Amino acid sequence: MRKASWFNVGSVALGLAFLYLPIVILVIYSFNASRLVTVWGGWSTRWYSELIADRAMLESAWVTLRIALLSATAATVLGTLAAIALVRFGRFRGRLLFSGMVYAPLVMPEVITGLALLLLFVAVDVDRGFWTITIAHTTLITCFVTVVVQSRLVTFDVSLEEAAMDLGCPPLRTFLTVTLPLIWPAVAAGWMLAFTLSLDDLVVASFTTGPGATTLPIRIYSEVRLGVKPEINAICSILIAIVATGIVGASLLAKFHDVGRGGIGGLAAR
Amino acid sequence: MHGAIKKRGEHNRSWGARLIVLVPYLWLATFFLLPFLIVVKISFSHTAIAQPPYTPVFDPAAGWEGLKQALSALSFENYALLASDWLYLASYLKSLEVAAGSTLLLLLIGFPLAYGMARTPRRWQPIVFVLVVLPFWTSFLIRIYAWINILQRDGLLNQVLLALGIVDAPPAWLSTDTAVYIGIVYSYLPFMVLPIYATLEKMDETLIEAAADLGCPNWRAFWLVTVPLSRPGVVAGVLLCFIPIVGEFVIPDLLGSSQTMMIGQTLWTEFFGNKDWPVSSAVAVVLLCLLVVPIVIYQQMETRDPAGGR
Q: What is d(CA B73, CA A107) in angstroms, rounded to the nearest whole number?
């Protein structure tokens, strides 16, 4: 048993306070009755009901959700394949370039990725909008899935797969019946990470968007530039509530530790 | 383990196995690599008032002759502009300064937090871990917006400062570098904490005990044992923060001043404001060259030790 010294408890407590205070304040102010965001005018759900009437905002939310679902799913397939290739295939031709392309988007400044993808879409002359954002997001978030799944594959006992194949199970069936069930928590965590990253993205979406595809971050950003508004407090609080419920629910469902670790832990614990 | 991989590798070189590599390979080549080549190409084009707003320099259909012609017609005017106009140099320097400063701050704040997390009793660790990770999952934009709420002139911070009598007149926090640093440190904290936590958590504590048994004072044991052992995590955290911060756009745009822009903002303005695609491409190419060294170090770490040695 470790001793929890005052210094350690203090630094964790301060760190958590720093992380949570702004969010808590934001949520509290979303229930402020006053239109002046800085003056407290009592509790009210007024801004939430105004939000429901805001068709443009709802439209954006729907577009964002569809893009996130599609691109997270595509990225999960691509990212899992890439992780298997990197962990299991040892050396293959072009591996260096491959791993470079897999890891680079993790740290690449988004303005560069966004600009590059837009120039590609212009060069091949496609109509920009829903599908270009979806493709761009898939490219952006695949690497995160790869990293998460990879961290699980590395600790995975290969002899299980070998046993199945020695007993005459074909490779695809081995993958579906042995490998996939075992790496499933990481795949699910990767999907969730990809999903929230897509929901969240402003920069790449701004570059690759077109008429009729204004995502929620793009809309929030253009409103925020004009100043703080109670409606924005409300929509942000709703988004926070959705994400928090999702994460806490998922951590309770799956074994808390494993998914949490496999998720962001896998991303950062390298 | 190694032999097993090899055996499986041989076993698996069927069309199915090729497909596993090929599908993500082709996707990334098309949507990640190719776009960069286009950026490089357009950065050598002339600006034109047209749609799209540049004149192409190279037509692949023209073949080898066309390529030679194109090479002689390459325009370095965009790069010359970047070198000659103080604005661009200033914003590159500003980006490096902000990235270096905030990475240092992140390390100073992140290390004690990670250390505290690793020393939390085992029972509580998963909970503390999820608590630190949770804000990361909420939207980046929302977290920056939350700070606008707090930092605006009549916002909560100034109300508290006035009430406590620390200041007489409310100072302006928004549109200052201080706000940018706060926003960056806040947003990137998990990227710094988690890699450090991962190395500290698996550190063998008997090493510290051994040092103590041999009469080494606590702070010296920390300095001689803990710090060197946490180095991989620190390096990963520093790179994971530094590289994206250099190209950061949203935080300086929403919290910072428009006096000295960071390079991400300059690129954005050139592109969306001035509609000058060749110049913004050139800005991107130079930014990438600036980041090549840290990115390569980062990739070396990745390829050598993809699972973080867990």
A: 34
